[in-house]
C-alpha cells in the first residue's frame, strides 16, 4: 500500500472511530430534551438507561471511554498492527470531554470560566496536535510510540492482551484523571476571582513553554537529519534555548498546563482533583527515565548526554551547574 493510500485510510479511521460515543451521547441528549419539560425532574420520566446516564455524568464519561477507546481502539490497533491512534487522540479527548461536561443536562457553571477553560483546552490541543503531525512528517499513523514498540518485543506473544491494559486502560486513568478539573469547572457555578486569572496565566505559560521547547527540539532533529544526508557528523545533544536550562522543558510546559487546570478546580473547592495531575506527573517521571536511558544507550551521544545530566536541571528550568561541569572537564 502506498503512503498516500495509507494516509487516507488512517485518516478515515481516525475521523470515524469516535462516532459510537458521539452518536450515543447525541441520542441521550435528544431523549432528555424530548421527555422532559422546564423545571421537571428528568429522572422521573426517563427510561432506566437514560436515567442512569442523566444522574452519573462522570461515570458515563468513563463508560464511553472504556468501550469506544479501550475496546474499539484496541481491536483496531491489532488489525492495523500499530497503536498509533491513542497518541493522536491524547490531543483530542480533553477537548471532547470539555464539551461533554459543558453540555450534560446536569452541568452548572460560570459562563465565562467555562468558555475560558474550553478555549484554553483548544489552544493546548491545537499546539499538541500540530507538534504530533510535525514530528510524524504530516503523516497519519506512520508509526506508533517507540515505548509501545519496545513493549511489543518485551511481551512477545502476550502483547495482544497486555496492550489492552498497558496502552488503553492506563490512558483512561490518565486522561479522565487529568481532565477532572474540566468536570469541576462545569459542575460548580461561582463568580470569577483572582485565582481564575492565576490559573489562566499558569495554563498559558505551560502551553507557551511547551510550544517553544518542542519547536527547538524539532529544529534540532531536522538539522541532524540534514547533516546525516550530506555525510557530516551530527550534533550529539540539544543544549540551546530552553534546553540550556532544562533537560525536558517540553515536559515541564505540559505539566504546567495540567497543574494550571487544577488551580481552577481548587478555587472551586475541589482541590482533591490534583490526584489526576499527580499521577500523570509521576508517570512522566518514569517516562523521563526511559527517555534518558535511551539517550545513554546511543554511543555517539552517551558522553555528551552524561555531562548534560550532571549540569542541567531535569524539568524545572534553572541555571547550569558550572562547578560540576568544570570538575568533569578536568577529570
TrEMBL record:
TM ranges: 12-29, 58-77, 84-102, 159-185, 192-213, 256-287
InterPro entries hit by this protein: UstE-like
Keywords: Membrane, Transmembrane, Transmembrane helix
Pfam families assigned: DUF1295
GO cellular component term of the entry, any: membrane
Signal peptide: none
Protein name: 3-oxo-5-alpha-steroid 4-dehydrogenase, C-terminal
Originating species: Trema orientale
Amino acid at each position: 500500500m502506498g503512503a498516500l493510500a495509507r494516509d487516507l485510510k488512517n485518516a478515515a479511521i481516525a475521523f470515524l472511530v469516535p462516532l459510537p460515543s458521539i452518536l450515543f451521547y447525541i441520542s441521550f441528549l435528544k431523549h432528555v430534551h424530548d421527555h422532559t419539560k422546564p423545571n421537571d425532574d428528568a429522572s422521573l420520566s426517563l427510561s432506566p438507561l437514560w436515567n442512569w446516564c442523566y444522574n452519573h455524568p462522570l461515570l458515563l464519561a468513563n463508560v464511553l471511554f472504556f468501550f469506544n477507546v479501550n475496546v474499539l481502539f484496541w481491536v483496531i490497533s491489532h488489525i492495523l498492527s500499530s497503536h498509533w491512534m491513542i497518541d493522536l487522540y491524547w490531543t483530542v479527548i480533553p477537548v471532547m470531554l470539555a464539551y461533554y461536561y459543558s453540555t450534560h443536562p446536569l452541568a452548572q457553571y460560570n459562563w465565562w470560566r467555562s468558555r475560558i477553560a474550553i478555549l484554553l483546552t483548544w489552544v493546548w490541543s491545537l499546539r499538541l496536535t500540530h507538534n504530533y503531525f510535525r514530528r510524524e512528517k504530516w503523516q497519519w499513523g506512520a508509526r506508533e510510540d517507540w515505548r509501545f514498540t519496545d513493549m511489543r518485543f518485551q511481551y512477545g506473544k502476550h502483547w495482544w492482551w497486555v496492550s489492552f491494559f498497558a496502552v488503553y486502560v492506563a490512558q483512561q486513568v490518565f486522561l479522565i484523571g487529568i481532565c477532572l478539573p474540566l468536570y469541576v469547572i462545569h459542575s460548580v457555578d461561582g463568580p470569577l476571582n483572582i485565582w481564575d486569572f492565576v490559573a489562566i496565566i499558569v495554563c498559558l505559560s505551560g502551553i507557551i513553554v511547551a510550544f517553544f521547547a518542542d519547536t527547538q527540539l524539532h529544529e534540532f532533529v531536522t538539522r541532524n537529519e540534514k547533516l546525516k544526508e550530506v555525510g557530516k557528523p551530527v550534533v550529539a545533544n540539544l543544549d540551546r534555548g530552553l534546553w540550556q536550562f532544562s533537560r525536558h522543558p517540553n515536559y515541564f510546559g505540559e505539566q504546567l498546563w495540567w497543574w494550571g487546570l487544577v488551580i481552577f478546580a481548587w478555587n472551586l473547592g475541589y482541590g482533591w482533583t490534583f490526584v489526576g495531575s499527580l499521577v500523570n506527573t509521576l508517570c512522566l517521571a518514569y517516562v523521563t527515565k526511559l527517555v534518558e536511558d535511551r539517550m545513554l544507550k546511543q554511543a555517539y551521544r552517551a558522553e555528551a548526554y552524561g555531562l548534560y545530566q550532571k549540569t542541567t536541571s531535569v524539568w524545572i528550568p534553572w541555571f547550569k551547574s558550572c562547578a560540576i561541569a568544570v570538575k568533569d572537564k578536568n577529570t
